[in-house]
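TL;DR need structure tokens for one chain.
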Amino acid sequence: MSKLKIKTYLSICVVVLLTLFIARPWIEKGFNHIPTPNDDITIDFTDDSGYRIRMEKPADTIISLYSAHTENLFALGLDREIIGVGSSDIYPYEALSKEVYDYKSDPEKVIASRPDVVLIRPFIERHSPDFVKSLRRTGITVVSLYPDSFDEFDEYITKLGMITGKETTAERLLSEFHFELQAISHEIISTENQVGVYFESSDREYKTVTEASMAAYAIDLAGGRNIASDAVPVEEGSSIAIYGTENIIEKADDIDVYVTQRGVMGAGGNTHSISIRPGFDVIKAVKNDRVYEINQKIISSPTFRFIKGVKALQRAFYPEKYCEIEIKEGIVTRQELSEVMVKYLNTMIFVPTTSYYNDLDKGHYYGDFVDVTVDHDYFDYIETAMKRGYFKSFIIEEKNYFYPEQPVTREEFALIIYLINDFKNESTVIKDCDDIFNNRIVETVVFHDLMSLEEGCFNPSEPLTWDVLKSGLGL
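>> reply
TL;DR here they are.
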């Protein structure tokens, strides 16, 4: 081989090696290409796993492998762009119709779908590193995001907006979000004698939350005083702290309200298990029956539903103010009675878990009403009332309807009264008993003077009035 050819060959090798050397960090970081000065990069930021994300345009196809990402993407209006979700992603209801992907499984299913972006969180990066590396090796842009504290929520939503081309929508949603939180905060300023609150994030070693957590911020916004504000994180940057039985019982007299977080990730105990724990009978909240369960998704998950969690805590902390029932005139509608019952019983709003959808025989699933969508003013009240069995849905052409503005019948109200009281069936004479489907229930309610007869008749199909509601609930 001539000296010229050898020289040319060596030059080519040097160029190739330099190219690979320059390209290597970008390949390792999951980029689709080696950046050059001519690239038209419009999106450029570092994700929460330390990878620099550079994209020429917003993603048009997205696979989301974390439920909070999925929920926030839908909030941004990205139904069409979402082509896949994680195995536990169940909100909003539309997420259930998406293809399911699992980061614990073979990555080939994700790779074959050729998404523009796969959204994960650092937890997935740590626990399934081979899965994530496989995606990046094929050139798929993997973005890892998770706000460790409430202060990082805005930046997180902003990045989601950048990735998807929804910056304007993200900005608007954040503005509305903070406006509502500010309104809540202003309400609390005048609150005196704040209730003492203990928040149980897990019943293992009786863990609670640190001051930097979303849950602790929610307690503060709702007007509570976190009695575990001295809790030390299990590790630097963590929102979880071990508090222990001794600390809890030592402050038993200060705990006016005991809140336990329920959900998939390290749930706290339920109200019954907490009430029978050895030594817990001295806790003020346990003695006064003020132990409340709240779903993790609305109190610790970084989504816009955080507002629902704060309002739920408000009702638990100050029922005399936030559970006040406005008595109106005329006929009671189904949506109005839903709100009344949630406030009357001071019930935490229902939020489903993955197992909820395993029952295929339900007549109604959370969120599937055609006429009560997630932005409906009475959505949470209606869904909670449905879960507690107060109403039945109407199925028309395989679609579910609630008819929120339809009047409640007297028989429907009698059934609700019966459900919330510990009655034994009683008999009484009702002339139109044959017109009543639940006649033994109605007889019992009438026997206890919670609803009256008119000339010996109950008139089960007649609409419920506010006067009758007021009398039946003893308001």
